[in-house]
Amino acid sequence: MLELAILGLLQEAPMHGYELRKELTAKLGAIRAAISYGSLYPTLRRLQAAGWIAEAAETPATAEEVPALTSRRGRVVYTITAEGKERFAQLIAQTGPETYGDTGFGVHFAFFSRTDQATRLRILEGRRRTIEERREGLRDMLGRAAERLDAYTLELQRHGLEACEREVRWLEELIANERSGRAPTVPHDGTAGGRREDNSPPPPGETRKERP
Amino acid sequence: MLELAILGLLQEAPMHGYELRKELTAKLGAIRAAISYGSLYPTLRRLQAAGWIAEAAETPATAEEVPALTSRRGRVVYTITAEGKERFAQLIAQTGPETYGDTGFGVHFAFFSRTDQATRLRILEGRRRTIEERREGLRDMLGRAAERLDAYTLELQRHGLEACEREVRWLEELIANERSGRAPTVPHDGTAGGRREDNSPPPPGETRKERP
DNA sequence: GCCGCGATGTATCGGACCGATACATCGCAC
DNA sequence: GTGCGATGTATCGGTCCGATACATCGCGGC
Q1: Does one domain contain both A134 and A47?
Q2: How confident is the model at residue A200 (pLDDT cuts 50, 70, 90)?
Q3: Residues of B in contact with A139 (CB under 8 A)
Q4: Mean pLDDT of B185-210
Q5: Taking 90 as the threshold, does the pLDDT of residue B70 lie above it?
Q6: d(CA B65, nearest CA chain A) in Å
Q7: Alpha carbon of A19: minimum distance to chain B alpha carbons (Å)
Q8: To probe the interface with B, which of A157, A174, A197 has the most B CB atoms within 10 Å?
Q9: Which of B134, B154, B163 lies at the smallest CB-CB distance from A163?
Q10: What CA–CA distances, in Å, run from B80 to A16, A202, B6, B54?
Q11: pLDDT for the residue numbered B186
Q12: Residue A131, domain extent
């Protein structure tokens, strides 16, 4: 998952570790709290070893003017390579059970603007399926096995069930939008407060390419 | 987290691994999918080594009648020890940042009927604080940095924000209930379908003890 | 003028947990 | 009688987290 996210972000701009973490947190803030450096740096090494990213040695502007103040340990800026872009395309298109889990789905969704419509639809439907199953499990629990559980556990289940029902509805709307080729703007009841009148919806159909 | 959950479950009844996993899945179904055996068995060993649980060697009823069919590798039933109960009490009462994360909170909440009211309140308020901070982060993102993100990422954030707002409201109700000493039954709009008219609410105030 | 302090920045280590896999038994349907 | 799904125990490699360490930068306060 981290691998996919890093490759995706570096496709937007070269970055160093710290920056990458901030962007990651911004993009995936709704999914997970914050990526740990204990995951980030080892993964960066792995990706570099695989040849998917490369160090871009922070061009020191005028290298001879500021040669070595105190043997500056410069920030290590990473760039995605051609192989890295291929790898990203491969990862983003392949779907499996882990694509439909909470984290996996979130990461894939966050890069939907770089995903073709067929894959988007496949992922949304797979996720819906997964949540529907979770929902059914909770319904069963609240129905049949209710007397075996204490009031707090039941309340937890009930809250979880409600969250499932809500997410299924959300996914339904996204799927409908996706099928009709519109941008991912869901009509809402007006609670959650994002103004976002006309925020450059991606051309309804194909993967958006970056301008180089 | 697993440690706490196992100790908590074994306090209700002795169990073997497989059963433990099923009960774990039932109790925490709203939180996490299913505990992996790759976590469960090593943890059981660890707990046994620490003296918090003990093997109860599945009484073979009439041991001499069915001596050794094919050198039966019996199920290993675990029981919680007195030290284990102490450990559980200690773990359930101590709160820290990890108590307020998604998984940590879920596990603690699932054992609220074995938690005293003061701790329950502390956990609920800590969780609310955590979610409020996450909510503010998302609000900021949707406000200030909106134009930097694509429509899909924004939609993800918006959905996450709504979930936060919803959970805060849920927590408010639970906190109010807790303060008024009532059972955790929240009045709802009627959507999520749990019938649960009068399901033995725990005596409003103290930790419920098991009947031995 | 300089001092502390929070933000920026890179890095490692032990541990928790997962997913895949292996293997053996039991009960039942076909 | 045999195959197959549920029950049951167990390990291995890999991902990710949380704590920790350490160095620099810029800025406000004294």
Answers
A1: no
A2: very low
A3: 193
A4: 48
A5: no
A6: 35
A7: 15
A8: A157
A9: B163
A10: 49, 57, 9, 6
A11: 59
A12: 125-185
In a domain, A209, yes or no: no
Q: Does the residue B148 lie in any domain? A: yes
Q: Which among A67, B125, B35, A50 is positioned nearest to B9, based on CA atoms?
A: B35
Say if residue B106 is in the same domain as residue B143: no
Strand C contacted by A51 CB (< 7 A): no
Angle at A98 between CA A1 and CA A82, to 5 degrees: 40
Average pLDDT in the B58-81 region? 60
Please indicate, yes or no, if residue A92 is contained in any of the structural domains: yes
Percent of chain A with pLDDT over 90: 66
User: Tokens 């007006």 belong to which residue?
Assistant: A190
Alpha-carbon gap, residue A177 to A184, rounded angstroms: 6
pTM: 0.84
Q: Name which of B29, B142, B194 is nearest A194 (Cβ-Cβ).
A: B142
A70 CB-to-strand D distance under 7 Å: yes
Mean pLDDT to the nearest integer, A194-199: 43
- B29, B141, B193: residue with CB nearest A26: B141
Nearest residue by alpha-carbon distance to C1' of D15: A39
What's the CATH number where B92 sits? 1.10.10.10
Residue nearest to nucleotide C25 (CA to C1'): B72
Same domain, B2 and B104: yes
Average pLDDT, chain A: 83
What lies within 8 Å, CB to CB, of B74 at 6+ separation is: B57, B58, B60
Residue in B with minimal Cα distance to A153: B110
- Pair (B98, B51) in one structural domain: yes
Task: Give the least confident one: A42-46, B26-30, B150-154, B186-190.
Answer: B186-190
Residue of A nearest to B191 (CA): A162
Q: Does residue B49 form part of some domain?
A: yes
The alpha-carbon gap from A199 to the nearest alpha carbon of chain B, in Å, equals 7
Which amino acid appears at position B117 of this protein? Q
Residue A56 pLDDT: 83
> Chain A to chain B, count of Cβ pairs less than 8 Å apart?
162
Q: Which residues contact B108 (CB under 8 A, 6 or more apart)?
A: B4, B92, B95, B99, B115, B123
- A24 shares its domain with A94: yes
